[in-house]
Design brief:
It is built from 26 helices and 6 strands. It has about 650 residues and is mainly alpha-helical. The protein folds into 3 domains: about 10-160 and about 310-495, no CATH class; about 170-305, Four Helix Bundle (Hemerythrin (Met), subunit A) (Up-down Bundle), CATH 1.20.120; about 550-645, Transcription Regulator spoIIAA, CATH 3.30.750. Helix 25 (about 605-620) links the parallel strand 5 (about 590-605) and strand 6.
Length: about 650
């Protein structure tokens, strides 16, 4: 009976915790997808797989997996350079690498990276997230590289502080409605365009091996024609609202842009449909590409940068106020969720004309299963490079998160190889459906523990809630302003930067700070992989220098006494044995030598043996030797305390 009550108590705790984690994960899944340049559905699918599948297999039962801010930079680069259809392959390959690493028991090795490099990597990612999402927060587009995004932030601020428009309620209502509807049309046109692109190898005259039978695309041509026809009909229906808006704002430049863009979008939609009906697929593909850009122009003419910025600032302010002043009983509700709900309510009540989340009613419309044609013509060299980077960064972040989870609770310890294997399975599945890559995420994991999660059921249930919500209530997600999700990520990026980490690293010396700064700078001005490699190379160089550098300063008494002091600084290893021996030879035979270890980082057996042998010989004469073992022990204890502080700090950063 007691065991039954205990099991029911644990089940209830896990059920409550799963709801809290679901509320934390929902806005993060969407925001990270937008920051990655991927469909919102791709982030939600990853959250579902991370909860249900990886939660069932995980080696760290209380860790919660899903899309992570730390991977947005890599994913965005993959999508921009190779296309969304190649993301699935890169994620799949990364998952295979993780599975192999788990089977080979390499889990602990992914943790063998200098904290300065890890913190520099996270800070670099944080800078890139802040720089790119600051533009999205004002309903603008990122400008390209991290350096360009940072450099153009003043321009974004200038846009957000433009003179506000005091449009009548009816004008705002129509513009807001058009933004919702045009955003959905944009999503549909992108989807149709990507599906049509799968037919490109089937076009007459396409360059393809004649002895290979190509796999039929997932969507047939009649289906594409039907979908384009539906888009034309919806676009035609919008023209009445555009005409009404023109009458209400007659003569304004914005109104003229909206009419011109709407007319062009309808014209391109009809021409693309005609191309499909006449089997002129190349022309249809080109027209759809142009129509996507025209629809983006139409969205740009409908939205307001300053209103989007206002909603973004409200979101950040709400997060800060909720975290700082909400009653403890209510803090179980995640601050980001409160902020997103508040921004959504304000946007709905005041009919704010800003961009909104684009998501299909049926989540699985966004699934992109790689076919044999994609496999055959994929840029494998670039994919392999991207997959290795994804695997290394995702694994390091996951296992660091697992270490932090172990320190937060007294339950079972992490089985690192099993966790790595589970993450690999999850990423293989995400790759097969074209979703975002996943890692263990400290924000969700800590929420799970703080909410009372006891077993892996809480992570599994959170995935179930995500699946049920997006399957039944997807229409609610389309009410969320994109700017509020971007603002949430701006705050997340700021937390990743964590300026306090530099202060902590300074306690280990300026060398660690230099490694951190070099990693951050390289990431911002080049790319993530280069930054990590630079950091690792500098760490290796510092390690070699540390274990090969020794300062030995001998001070002899000048007042005729026999006292002498030998101060050792650095590392006393066999490499520096000749130098230490040469200094000892300078000690007078009758001197009382005091060896100061207070600035010594390390001493190996060879140097200790040299000192012991020298002491025996020296003490056989008239001299004496005193070694300050206490200072060496206190040095070791201080380093141990610093390491503990470093671990606690890393928990908060990751």
């Amino acid at each position: 009976m007691f065991e039954s009550n205990l099991s029911m108590s644990i089940f209830k705790s896990d059920l409550l915790a799963s709801i809290v984690v679901f509320l934390v994960a929902l806005p993060l899944c969407m925001g990270i997808a937008i920051a990655s340049g991927a469909p919102v559905a791709a982030g939600l699918i990853t959250g579902i797989i991370g909860g249900i599948i990886v939660g069932s297999l995980a080696g760290c039962p209380l860790q919660v997996s899903g899309p992570a801010a730390g991977l947005t930079v890599i994913v965005y680069e993959i999508i921009q350079t190779m296309g969304l259809e190649m993301l699935g392959l890169a994620v799949l390959l990364a998952g295979v690498i993780q599975i192999v690493a788990g089977l080979l028991r390499w889990g602990q090795w992914f943790r063998a990276v200098s904290p300065a490099v890890i913190q520099g990597m996270l800070a670099g990612i944080g800078f890139l997230i802040v720089a790119s999402q600051f533009h999205v927060m004002i309903d603008d587009k990122p400008k390209g590289s991290g350096a360009q995004n940072l450099a153009t932030i003043p321009q974004a601020i200038a846009k957000s502080f433009a003179l506000p428009e005091f449009a009548p309620t009816e004008v705002r209502r129509i513009r807001s409605k058009l933004l919702h509807e045009v955003g959905e049309l944009h999503r549909q046109q992108v989807n149709i365009h990507e599906r049509l692109a799968e037919h490109v190898p089937h076009l007459p005259g396409a360059i393809a091996p004649t002895d290979i039978e190509l796999e039929p695309p997932a969507v047939t041509m009649p289906q594409l024609v039907e979908q384009q026809q539906g888009l034309v009909e919806q676009m035609t229906g919008l023209m009445d609202e555009v005409d009404q808006l023109q009458k209400l704002t007659e003569g304004s430049k914005r109104s003229q842009r909206i009419v011109a863009a709407s007319t062009a979008a309808l014209s391109h939609s009809e021409a693309a449909l005609e191309g499909l009906e006449k089997d002129n697929l190349g022309k249809a593909l080109q027209l759809q590409t142009e129509n996507i850009m025209v629809l983006e122009d139409l969205l740009a003419s409908l939205k307001n940068h300053h209103l989007a910025a206002g909603l973004g600032m409200v979101t950040i302010l709400a997060i800060l106020l909720w975290q700082g002043f909400a009653p403890k009983k209510l803090q179980v509700i995640p601050a980001p969720l409160v902020a997103i709900v508040l921004a959504t309510i304000l946007a709905t009540v005041f009919v704010v004309p800003v961009l909104y989340v684009e998501i299909p009613n049926n989540l699985w419309e966004e699934v992109r299963v790689p076919n044999t044609d994609i496999l055959r013509y994929a840029p494998w060299a670039d994919l392999a490079k991207a997959a290795v980077l994804l695997a290394v960064v995702a694994s390091a972040e996951t296992l660091l998160c697992a270490t932090a989870v172990d320190q937060m609770q007294q339950g079972p310890r992490t089985a690192y190889d099993r966790e790595l294997f589970a993450q690999g399975i999850g990423n293989v599945l995400c790759g097969l459906v074209g979703a975002l890559p996943m890692t263990g995420v400290i924000v969700r994991s800590s929420a799970n523990i703080q909410a009372g999660g006891k077993t892996r059921l809480s992570a599994i249930f959170h995935g179930v809630w995500l699946l049920l919500f997006v399957s039944v209530l997807a229409f609610l997600l389309r009410l969320i302003p994109t700017s509020s999700l971007a603002a949430m990520l701006v705050y997340t990026g700021y937390k990743l930067i964590n300026v306090k980490s530099m202060v902590k690293l300074r306690q280990y010396g300026w060398g660690e700070v230099a490694i951190y700064a070099a990693t951050v700078g390289t990431i911002i001005f080049t790319d993530l992989l280069s930054g990590v490699l630079v950091g690792i190379a500098l760490s290796a160089g510092k390690l070699l220098y540390t274990f090969s550098h020794l300062e030995a300063k001998l001070s002899l008494s000048e007042n005729g006494e026999k006292d002498a002091v030998l101060k050792l600084k650095g590392s006393a290893t066999f490499i520096r044995l000749p130098k230490l021996a040469a200094v000892l030879e300078r000690v007078p035979e009758d001197a009382d030598l005091h060896v100061d270890f207070s600035h010594l980082d390390y001493i190996d057996h060879a140097c200790l043996e040299l000192l012991m042998n020298w002491a025996k010989q020296h003490e056989s004469g008239k001299g004496n030797l005193v070694m300050d073992w206490g200072s060496l022990h206190s040095r070791v204890d201080r380093m141990a305390r610093l390491n503990q502080d470093e671990a606690e700090q890393l928990e908060s950063v990751v």
